[in-house]
Each structure stands twice: as structure tokens, then as C-alpha cells.
Amino acid sequence: MKMHHRAAHRALQLLFLSALLAPLSPALAQRAVLAFAEQPAKLIRKTTVHEAPAGARLQSGDIVETDKRWLQLEWPGDAILALGPASSVLLGDAGGAPTVSLLRGWLKVSAGQRAARPLTIQAGGLELRTGGEGGSGVLHLSADQVELFVEQGTLAVTDREKSASAVTVNREHYAQRGGGLALRVAQRPPPAFIAAMPRSFFDTLVAVANRAVPAAVKPLREAGAADLAEWTNLAPMLSRQLVTQFSARLADPLFAGDAETMLAANPHWRQAIQQATSVRRRQNTISNVLF
Known about the structure:
Structural class: alpha+beta
Largest sheet: 17 strands, mixed
């Protein structure tokens, strides 16, 4: 009887300890919040398009997209990301540390010394990693190049397709990769970059998540080919990941037809479309034989 009592008491102690440590779990601690949005953002979770208002808690695998407005995401500590107009990001998790993949457009990142874990950002074959010393910078991904301007501090950048070594890009320096060429760094950004940069990015990012009232996302519809067509200049691994995520939609004849027009230029989508077409043909052949 005493043994049973001690076991029960021990179980209660472990349960209490787990409750205390749960907020420190990296997987839980690194979830982002949509801290600010002038209007609800477009969010794709798995294959469903949602409406996400300010205050929405985001998950690994979520794709967040803006239209003509900008929005701000925040992680525990002081990691902040602003997403420019007509821009998209995919949120991820690498061993409890947050990752962000820029799918198109503009983003600005700011991470200080209090950031719970380094924030890793991928764009067009480049990997940018914020360090413990803090830093802020602006990234732009277009169909043919990726550009980086370091506003404050330093940022470590690795050209994953050309080198395994990181390059330190200093304050007010500019880095660019495009046309299949390796990363190059200049002492200042070109005037065209500054002219095209979203006006809101000239301001310092300020954390506002503590003012956002928790809100739920609202499912709207299944993703169509048009939702995916603007994501270009992606690293091969990311491209394959997205095709795997959305290829189940090829079972929908409407999506499949649109995909042949809008997505087939991507070699990974082209292969998935061909495989889905072959499967449909075999199924039709079997149906004709049986009936």
C-alpha cells in the first residue's frame, strides 16, 4: 500500500515538473504569431487556404502571403520578420529552431541578442542565419536573383549551391546572387534596390505581439494552381518539398488542368503532372476493360 502511495506521489511530481518545463520546449516555444496585419493575411495550411487575422498562432509548414499590404511575424524573444507586399514565406522548424523560406517578394528580419534561438532564412539557394550578436537585413527574391542588404549588425550567409562556407555580410553592405553565379558582396546596395524596397522597411521593426488579441484562422477553400504559380527561383530541395505537399491536389481535374498550364515549367511539377496523368490513363483503361 505504501509502495503504491509513493508511486502515485512520484507520478504527480513528474506531472508537475512536466507542466513547468512544457513552456520551455523548443517545439512549443518557437511558434510564430501573426503580430500585425492591416487586413487578414492569406495562409495555406497543408493544402487548404485560410484567412489569418492579426493574433493568429502559426504552425510549422504554414505558408503566409500578403497582397498589397505588409504584415509582421514574431517569435519568442526578439526575432521579428516583416513581409512586404505580394510576398510569401514558408515557416519551418529545424530541431526546435525556427526557419523561414522566402518563396517570393520581400522580407525584413530583425533578431537581437535576446532571441530564443537563431532564425534561419532561406531564399533562392542562399541561407541567412541570425546570430547571438543580433542584426537586421532586407531580402528580396525575384525570378532571376536574390538580394540582401544588411541594415544593422552582421549576418552570416551561405550559398548552399556553390559553397558550404558562410560569408559574413557587414552593416550597410549588399549581397547578390543570380544568373547561376556565386554570391558577390558590395559595400553598398545599388540605387534600384533602394528604390524598389517597400517604404515600410525603412523603419525599425518594433515588437507588437503583446498587443495582438489571440485569433483563429478561418478555412476558405482548397489551394488552386494559381496560388502556387508565383513561387519561382526556389532551391531544388524546397521546390520538391512543395510539389510533394500539393501533388495530392492533382486528383482534382480542375487543379490538374490548371497545373499543366501554370506549373509545368517547373521540372518537379512537370514530373508530378506526368505521373498523375499516367495513373489516370491506367485507371481509365482498367475501367474500359471491366465495363
